[in-house]
């Protein structure tokens, strides 16, 4: 194990995971369940897991498998689909009460409007139909049959086409993360420890591993996995890694209306705005409402809505490198992107 100063050492571990979102808790579960690593720990700065991007209302709540994601190439879809379907396979092994809090069956639709989008979606369907045999192609009349509010009030001559499946899933990723922790606890093993309310301040490379300073003491580990979203680059750069990378922080928000849709309905994605496919869908936590979004706002923070993280953003963004400034200008001066960001400001 790592040898270093012993003052205020909370614990020594073989693997230390930083970040208790759905990805970090999944890794914690996998290492605890399927390896013989002697000592594993997960550090989370909040008092509960999954309170930032994995929180129930802070993401699209969609299980992305590539069928309605028009910015996925066929090659990418072939990789993403089996990986994403690991979630339903995992959830269906849980107790029914737990299943009903995590996974929700919902229809999914990708909608093309106008001649150009319809032509693109026709081509897309031919490319992916063998990979997604349950995907149906719907004309305007059929779209109105499953989602009446889409065709209601539209011009009769406006071309519509949709790809549709009844076999989609919505996911409460906050509850999924909590279930990973619950399953680790059921093992009753003393190999795996969860630390809530432990905020990492610094990671330092030492002779045989790493020293991790937190607000409640020091940890030592042979290996450290930083699974903390945008803070991952912040810590990577502090260790000398990833210095060529930069961040453009774009945060999305969602808004609610009365129930207008029966399932998830996505619009066609612009390749210049892969993060901004506006969609409407049922919310997994609020019944009888339709949730709309996301918007896309540029704001210099590492965590949406937390101005206190702006200083860390500037430390990790690499804004003062010539190639970074050049890239920002090129990306943000594109008319499509610029118009979208201004519209959402």
TrEMBL record:
<dbReference type="GO" id="GO:0047545">
    <property type="term" value="F:(S)-2-hydroxyglutarate dehydrogenase activity"/>
</dbReference>
<feature type="transmembrane region" description="Helical">
    <location>
        <begin position="12"/>
        <end position="31"/>
    </location>
</feature>
<comment type="pathway">
    <text>Carbohydrate metabolism; tricarboxylic acid cycle; oxaloacetate from (S)-malate (quinone route): step 1/1.</text>
</comment>
<keyword id="KW-0816">Tricarboxylic acid cycle</keyword>
<keyword id="KW-0812">Transmembrane</keyword>
<protein>
    <recommendedName>
        <fullName>malate dehydrogenase (quinone)</fullName>
        <ecNumber>1.1.5.4</ecNumber>
    </recommendedName>
</protein>
<keyword id="KW-0175">Coiled coil</keyword>
<dbReference type="InterPro" id="IPR006231">
    <property type="entry name" value="MQO"/>
</dbReference>
<dbReference type="InterPro" id="IPR036188">
    <property type="entry name" value="FAD/NAD-bd_sf"/>
</dbReference>
<keyword id="KW-0472">Membrane</keyword>
<keyword id="KW-1133">Transmembrane helix</keyword>
<dbReference type="GO" id="GO:0008924">
    <property type="term" value="F:L-malate dehydrogenase (quinone) activity"/>
</dbReference>
<dbReference type="Pfam" id="PF06039">
    <property type="entry name" value="Mqo"/>
</dbReference>
<keyword id="KW-0274">FAD</keyword>
<keyword id="KW-0560">Oxidoreductase</keyword>
<dbReference type="GO" id="GO:0006099">
    <property type="term" value="P:tricarboxylic acid cycle"/>
</dbReference>
<dbReference type="GO" id="GO:0005737">
    <property type="term" value="C:cytoplasm"/>
</dbReference>
<keyword id="KW-0285">Flavoprotein</keyword>
<feature type="coiled-coil region">
    <location>
        <begin position="111"/>
        <end position="138"/>
    </location>
</feature>
